[in-house]
Amino acid sequence: MEPIFNVRQQSEIYIGPTSDILPGVLPGGRVVVVSDATIDRLYHPMLAPYDTVLIGLGESIKTLQTVESIYRRFIELGVDRSTFVLGIGGGIVTDVAGFAAATYMRGLDFGFVSTTLLGQVDASVGGKNGVNVDGYKNMAGTFTQPQFVICDPALLRTLPEREFRAGLAEVVKAAIIADADLFGRIERTTFEALRTDTDLLSDAVSAAIRVKSDIVERDERESGDRRKLNLGHTLAHAIEKASNRMNHGEAVAVGTALIAGAAVKLGALTQAD
Q1: What kind and span of H or E run contains 112?
Q2: Do the strands 128-133 and 84-89 form a parallel or antiparallel pair, or are they unpaired?
Q3: Residues 128, 137, 165, 173: which is the catalytic one?
Q4: pTM (two decimals)
Q5: Is the distance from CB of 195 to CB of 141 less than 8 angstroms?
Q6: How far apart are CA 116 and CA 148, in angstroms?
Q7: What's the mean pLDDT in 139-154?
Q8: Is 192 a catalytic residue?
């Protein structure tokens, strides 16, 4: 299967069944997986062939302490520069796995199987990898592209409704930034249709990734255009810092709504917009 995008000719993005794609994109040699207990429980056969490092769950584990624990486990496993790191999980797993791989022994090659909607359309794509420091979002990190990202819509069937809705916030964000047609399609469909129609969901995922990959192609290190992808995120990060009641996607949705309201008051948007 051919990638649907190739970000900066460094990072191949695939949409389709993991079982069909993964064998063809993994390099020869040793592979070590970074994942979490939920993914291990749901998709253990995918992890079973490899040495696996499991991290905790939730935003609270996205820290330098978790990265250090991965380093220690890598040392125990004898991981060296020839080892390929495969992150399998949602945005937290790919953020942490990518940062650990990019910094261990000055950098290992890595790739992702993204298992959440938010991860597929945003977190795993574009080369940003990072962790939080004292609750401040993504204060330590790198710009390092994964060799590949696999976005398998079938993996989203096990996603709780709340997490699926959170991912849709990032799809809507992408549509607002640069794809009016995608925004219109989202308006005309239903939540249940997106949940159950694989073709419809794949189309939305592909369109959202296209928005991000096009922007990252022009501005990998966020010196200009890439700042558009932070729509809703400035306020979202403040919300997440102040309270643990919302997950990231929910905070982005609220942040986007608040900034739109502010834009109306400032005259940058009309109420009709």
Answers
A1: strand 110-114
A2: unpaired
A3: 128
A4: 0.95
A5: no
A6: 16
A7: 98
A8: no
